[in-house]
Specification:
6 strands, alpha+beta
């Protein structure tokens, strides 16, 4: 009797297709763990450390991602200094934050934006005159060109 391979090993799902060539990304990163988001944070600019930016991001809840947390992922690391062993590239370091913190931050800044828009609207309405009311519409419309030439 001939050696036969199981039918399951012959399906197309087990074959991997070749990816088309694309220029390499300088900021590729390993996938974030479930419940987290990755982001590149500026550590230095033009060769000078940007401590103010890093400290503000760390206070917001961002935490640096270490290379040893992703042994299977080939990534450049910061070689020396305070952030040695952190995944980094060209003055940036990879950081992560929980998704719920991102949602809370988005809601906070959304509320601040609404408050500012309300203040601007109220300031604008104070300036209106009864004979020339101001119409404040924030809706946009899509229009297409005028009528075409009349056919002859």
């Amino acid at each position: 009797m001939a050696d036969r391979k199981p039918r399951a090993s012959e399906t197309r799902d087990t074959e991997t297709r070749r990816k088309p060539w694309a220029p390499p990304s300088h900021l590729s990163a390993p996938p974030a763990p479930d419940g987290f988001v990755h982001r590149w944070i500026r550590v230095s600019m033009r060769g000078e450390e940007d401590k103010m930016n890093v400290n503000s991001k760390l206070r917001e809840g961002w935490e640096p991602v270490r290379k040893d947390e992703y042994p299977e992922y080939e990534a450049p690391t910061i070689d020396g200094g305070r952030y040695e062993g952190i995944i980094g590239q060209g003055g940036l370091m990879l950081c992560r934050i929980p998704e719920e913190t991102v949602a809370e931050r988005t809601a906070y800044y959304g509320g601040r934006t609404r408050e500012q828009m309300t203040a601007v609207d109220q300031d604008l309405m104070k300036e209106q005159h009864p004979s020339m009311p101001i119409q404040n519409s924030r809706q946009s419309r899509v229009t297409f060109g005028g009528r075409g030439r009349d056919s002859e």
